[in-house]
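Hello K.,

You asked for the raw outputs rather than the summary table, so here they are, unedited. I folded two proteins back to back in the same session to keep the settings identical. This is the first:
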Amino acid sequence: MSGLPVKRVSDVEESPPEKWLVESLWTHQAVGFVAGHAKSSKSWLAVDIAVSVASGTPVLDRFPVSDPGLVLFFPAEDAPSAVRDRMKGICRHRDVDFETLNVWLIGSYTLRLDSQKDCEALESTVCEYRPRLLVLDPLIRLHSADENSASEIARILSFLRGLQRKYETAILLVHHARKSASSDPGLGIRGSTEIRAWSDTNLYMRRSKNLEIVVEHRAAPCPDPFKLALINENEDTVHLAIENAAQPKRTLKDRILEVMTSHAKSPLSREFIRTEVGARNKTVGETLQTLLDDALVEKTTEGYKLRNVTSPYP
């Protein structure tokens, strides 16, 4: 009988540096939850993350997206038109071209993760679209299993973990919390403890006087809890925002200057700049004209470049 392979611990390869889908908020290719009580804006946060990953704009105007790409989204409770309106409002708030937003809604009336047929259909869709992020909202509408049974819920979560590993996609589930409060928000997730154990990243949304988010990662440092508010800029532009944010929202002008600063060695085309900032072509053109008028940028036959490379800001 042969023995088990062993090696000296110092010969084990070092862990790679932590990679992020959304810096500080969602680790690279992580599976996990946005969890909270009813009416705690869980779906709003899921939509915000989806728009950010698809457009490359910071989540909540604060957390940069490190690995943007296509997003698949299945809203099991909200009408597709409601999801569309929310995403369009967030795009308007961020100066993102809604018409080219790389979010795709799964149009099935139902999706059951305890149905082999539906699981095969979902895997086929993920295989075809290869999303950077798959959002399923909420978990309770996606199965008829007993969430308190570790064995029953583990089969569903195991299937999703398999999707994540096979297709290298992050998976975000929206989930409910128990009514009873706890100092550890992870203990408030409804159902078996298997649910928390499965997750790489969890965002817990809880409301006392204010709406607060607590971030939990399996293998990465977590930011301090922070407070959110749902902001109504107007009836067509509603979005979540961090309360008492230490940093003001960066304007499109700031973002364009940052892109030009990081690529200061050569002129940039208007299309390259538009892609980097994820804004409408018309809006980018108007902002570039303002920068030209302010003598911060100059236009050459090769594109736009900073007029003062060492100090681009007024």
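The second followed immediately with the same parameters:
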Amino acid sequence: MKIYNNKRAVEFSFNWLFAVILGVVILVLAVYAVTKMISTGGTETGTIASKEIGILLNPLEINFESGKISSISIVTETRIYNKCDNTGTFGNQIIQTSQKTFGKFSEPSFEVKFPNKYIFSGNYEEGKKFSVFSKPFDFPFKTTDLIYLISVDKKYCFVKMPGNIKQELKNLNSSNLLTENCFNSADAIKVCFDSDTGCNITVSYNQGYVEKNHTRVYFETDALMYGAIFSEKDVYECQAKRLMMRTKELANIYNKKAASLEQKNCNSNLDLGIFGILLGNYKTSRDLSGLFIKSNEIKNANEAATCRMW
């Protein structure tokens, strides 16, 4: 009888242990399944958010004007990733998002591509609210609008900037783009013009370059200057390349228009064919200076011509 009781005890202990192990396995699988669902759901939600942000960043859709600041508000803490590629005729603006769930950011969403947008920002901007403004890029004709995206949690302090830049920034009336008495602000990114004393970013306005994180990129026009200030180097160089690709296509269109008008004895005297070749040879922002000289020559010739192309 004693042996029988021991056998029952062993059987009971084994059944209990098996039930515990099985319960743990089921619990682990359930947690894993829920985690995967949250992760997948976060990715899908992020992809939808990326598309919506891309649409919102279309100046025609949100009706923001050059020189006016707008904002995008998102309920959830979000990272907006800014990427681009130079494939195809115009390249692509690539947006991904990642949203915070249970105190942790999800994996970045699937890439959403826009061939007609040019966004300048950090590799990603993080927050619930983002400031957005735009400027037209003329080179020498209107190429497109450049969009600048900044988390409102970032503050930029502009120091000793030229009068036209100061007035433009003041007109934006943005709480995170500061122009007065901000140099001693501990949380502000210092943007200094022609000075590098205690500055995070140095802008050489006359020589046409921006230096930060020990790297230098080059710009022509104020529109690209802002792009260089707010962007990381890889984002800036990629977007500048895409802009030259778009400008090349537009130059070719205008060149065909000029050839058509010449048949009607209306000569524009523009070197748009040569300009297109030069644009096709563009490699990095170092090439912008020579292109800008040619752009100005074409601009002046167009303004003096009887038959203007634009």
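Helices lie at 2-56, 59-62, 163-172, 221-230, 233-262, 272-280, 288-304.

Happy to rerun anything if the numbers look odd on your end.

Regards,
P.
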